[in-house]
Amino acid sequence: MTRRGFTLLEVALAAAIGGLIVLAALGLLTAMDRTDRRLQARVEQQSELERVHLVMDRALGAILVSDQAPPSQQVSEGQVTGGQERGAPLPPRIQLSMDRGMGQMARRPDASGEVNVTTPQRLEIVLLQSPVPTDEQSGSIDRWIRASRRIGDREREEEEEEESATPVAVAVPVAAETDSGVGAEAAVKAVRGAFEWRQKPAAGSARGGFAGVERTEDGRTVWELWWIPLPRLTDDGRPVESLENARPYRIASDIVYGRWLAFSKRERKPVYATAYRLELPAYFEMEVETVNGQYANWMFEVGWATGPETFRTPAPAAEGDGEQPTREDLDRARARARVTPGARPGAGSGDRPAGNESGGAKDGGK
Q1: Pick from 255, 248, 353, 361: which is nearest to 300 by CA?
Q2: Residues 161-209: pLDDT tens digits?
Q3: How far, in whole angstroms, is CA 111 from its chain's centroid?
Q4: What DSSP assignment string belongs to 202-253?
């Protein structure tokens, strides 16, 4: 019997068909891998947005302001408070400003091809507590904030139960008693810091160099949101502490656009500053867009308490007179620092627009 093998044409056809099958399989695997990477990046950036929301909600719900009248009202009412000269302003407790010299933020072009460009902003603020974990605290910032919220809710319920039984004043920034009589400056529960946008360094480049800045495929700059600890200030603007060991904290990255607006006197303002309760805005609005196009627009109502940023200790007794602070002196010092936490402000300089009566942060993310 004669045995017949494959011809050259048959072998070539089989090899071509096999190659096409292999190429199709490789293309399918590549597409699946690309899709998986995109989904993973989308999940990570969604987590970044949630982290920004959590931090901003925590920060804007715990602002520490002064209960003094603003300088203009002090002049009109003839008030002189806190040892300040008439009309002398306090250092701003909330200061929203443009951080010029940092480049431009740009949103993805809309349907008409128009690109929304803005200057990066800087939000300096004084809070009752740090909005991010400190060096002594560890773990995920998301778990830390959620745990803090649960603890805060539980403490708030306990305080409400106690107040319903026996109403008492709650002191927020009070000084602790020490062996020497009066507590030190560090005993005040006040935290000053700033939210800043910084350009994200490209992979493998030195941080901070312009040539090493990461950009999107269409040439837009990629940004990171940082919390920068700052020293607390006295009423005349002098720093009272050194923060050599305090480190900045990166909250989120892969951001291409971010903007804050303060709603005050029926206007949405990109620049704003105050240190006084009577001038607080009704709410803050924040826009954020990530590299892959995820967009969120949030509204945060302002939660506040009043009190000093630093604790003013009584003048020390003259050397040799043998006098020490008494219990009455300590009680008076505590009374001067005693404050009552404020509810979320309603009408006033920051009147809310119609339809915004409910409290809390509102997520308008798309």
Answers
A1: 361
A2: 665 554 433 334 433 333 333 334 434 678 999 999 999 998 765 554 4
A3: 31
A4: PTTS-TT-GGGB-B-TTSPBPEEEEEEEE--B-TTS-B----TT---EEEEE
